[in-house]
Amino acid sequence: MTAGFQPRLFSEKSQPRRRNVFEGVTKCIFEGIEPDTFILYFKDNHPLNTTDVQDYPELSGKGVINNRFSEMIFQRLGELNIDHHLVRRLNMREQLVRIAESLPFFVEVHNKSCDDFTDRFGLEKYDQLPEMIAELRFKNKNANHPIVAPQHLVAFGLTDHEELDQLFATIQRINDFLIGQFSAVHMSLIRYKLEFGRIYLSDNPMDTRLILIDEISLDTCRVLDNLTTKRLDMYDSTDKDPSDVTGYHEIARRFGILHDQPLQSLLEPTLEPITEPSVASAELDTASAEPKTS
To answer: CATH assignment of 5-100+246-288?
Structure first.
């Protein structure tokens, strides 16, 4: 081994030393290594049945799977000319993304009834809905992200009818694609979350374009196994205390992310300088030594 180097396992417990822009439960956002970019760092935390950040259970390897899965989905959507913020994956837990102005609401897309949606409309569990239902939820954590009508958003100047038409058309295309992707591996995507942002194309504040942002990962999806009729995500209301990421492993295996290999095979030791001359260099070295996911 070259003098001055030591092996380091790429793990949740050794986060990169960059300026932290925002820290959430499941991700951190760091300053980007290129102009107009951020770095998303996927954590192993899972917020279930607690509001105390110290009590979030840590599920080893979850962040690695989510990073790889989100990268795969965004790349495939890009091939369909759906614009998104992903630039490239940097390493096992990080991806480089374009900066966008996040919309003040997110979208919950429903294909089958589950959880609170079942209760609200008096449906049977996992009933197939007659069509996709996209609910707009205003970003207000204190009010539990209330569902709002498009008229609310237009009336308060948060968007306009033209942008909403574009938004719903894009959601329909994304949903058609995702249903096919999950169906091909014998699973149903019953519900998931989407976030969008604006990028500015010129100095004119009206000259904008919507792009898909954030993540599409196994943290943001509710998934049903068509072979066993069991839930594979960790948000099943009947399972209050998930102890591992078995369902995530199964989804990743079917999509070819794990290639029938154990998760530990994705976490091989890497070489990193003891003294880093720059914040990003070690992360980029790791990324270049690692095969890209197709």
So the answer is: 3.30.200.20
